[in-house]
Backbone:
């Protein structure tokens, strides 16, 4: 049995380009960039070269880039920065959405306990935040608007440029978690009016455990990790050189191939969506078209997502029921619930997230396997017959 990996929203396979870029950083170029001797200074050159290259990929300046341990840390630092800087000016109101990643939501929970007022906007059944809602929510004491670029479970793309424009006009800081968006849709921090942005390398064929925070010049970052003076004093710890250089290579590769990959992956995505259209009582969650090229999220009534995943895995298919962070818990996804999907239906969710390494043949196998597994699980489901007769109402 061959493995068909379609869980790219959870993490991706490292690309050959990224791997090759990382190897010398773990062998010959082992210096500490903070060391003054020549071995250290050679490492420092690679660090600053990587910074310039990643900055270019999002149209930022190199001095606006801070390397982090990943998307979660970047989200934490951006939000903490905006909150504490705002509080100094008496601004303690923060606007976000109901279906953000937990790295955002749990940081906001912490701030709520510290006395900040958190307002989470609706995302509606199409999974898209309304610009008008952001506009109406902004107040004189709003310190931050943080809305993700694209949702990690359903893949819907948010109107980031327009939200950024509203924030700019009202003088409110705007952060976006672009972890799912980068590499799949074009990101330009200037054109999209973004003040702070989070990226994670392992979501676009870079290594795990590295990411970056873009922070527009003029915004004073608050430290989350204290210690040495690395990253201009804003993020302590000896730089993860191999991963940083690997991320730079992966970012350039993603940007270079973005159009080609998006076209190819979108065709695979649509093939699977169309191929499953005949399955009764299923829904495609989130807007049909305004979604990432590779992300599909289905709900199948009458079955449990966990059973679906295990049986697909027996066919070699690695998918997800939602976010990797919630798998293992029996609570239905907060993302699906925020979109108004009933609890019982949300339990039967399946996320398929494709990348350019997937093939048409794999898409055919996935379509067949989903039909087979859904039919089987419904045949042993205690509620399926009742659902068909319309007796079960959520
Ligand atoms: C994966 C992900 C994160 C977390 O990134 P890590 O690098 O794994 O910490 C944050 N936000 C979104 C939308 C993600 O998909």
Residues:
């Amino acid at each position: 049995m061959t493995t068909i990996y379609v869980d790219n929203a959870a993490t991706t396979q490292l690309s050959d380009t990224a791997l090759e870029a990382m190897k010398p950083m773990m062998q010959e170029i082992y210096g500490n960039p903070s060391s003054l001797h020549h071995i250290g200074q050679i490492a420092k050159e690679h660090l600053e070269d990587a910074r310039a290259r990643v900055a270019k990929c999002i149209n930022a300046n190199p001095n606006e880039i801070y390397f982090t341990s990943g998307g979660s840390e970047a989200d934490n630092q951006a939000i903490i920065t905006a909150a504490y800087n705002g509080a100094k000016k008496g601004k303690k109101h923060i606007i976000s959405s109901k279906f953000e990643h937990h790295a955002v939501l749990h940081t906001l929970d912490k701030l709520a306990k510290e006395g900040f007022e958190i307002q989470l906007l609706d995302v509606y059944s199409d999974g898209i935040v309304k610009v008008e809602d952001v506009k109406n929510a902004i107040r004189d004491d709003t310190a931050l608007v943080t809305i993700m670029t694209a949702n990690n479970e359903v893949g819907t793309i948010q109107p980031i440029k327009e939200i950024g424009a509203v924030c700019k006009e009202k003088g409110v800081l705007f952060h976006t978690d672009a972890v799912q968006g980068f590499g799949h849709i074009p990101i330009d921090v200037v054109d999209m009016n973004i003040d702070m942005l989070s990226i994670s390398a392992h979501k676009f064929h870079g290594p795990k455990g590295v990411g970056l925070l873009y922070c527009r010049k003029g915004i004073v970052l608050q430290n989350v990790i204290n210690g040495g003076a690395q990253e201009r004093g804003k993020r302590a710890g000896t730089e993860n050189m191999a991963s940083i250089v690997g991320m730079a290579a992966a970012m350039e590769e993603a940007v270079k191939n973005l159009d080609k990959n998006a076209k190819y992956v979108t065709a695979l995505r649509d093939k699977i969506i169309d191929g499953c259209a005949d399955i009764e009582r299923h829904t495609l969650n989130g807007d049909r078209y305004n979604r990432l090229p590779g992300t599909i999220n289905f709900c199948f009534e009458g079955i449990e997502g966990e059973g679906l995943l295990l049986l697909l895995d027996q066919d070699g298919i690695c998918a997800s029921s939602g976010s990797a962070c919630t798998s293992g818990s029996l609570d239905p996804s907060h993302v699906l619930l925020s979109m108004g999907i009933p609890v019982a239906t949300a339990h039967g969710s399946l996320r398929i997230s494709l990348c350019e390494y997937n093939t048409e043949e794999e898409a055919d196998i996935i379509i067949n396997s989903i039909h087979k597994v859904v039919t089987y699980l419904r045949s042993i489901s205690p509620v399926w017959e009742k659902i068909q007769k319309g007796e079960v109402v959520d």
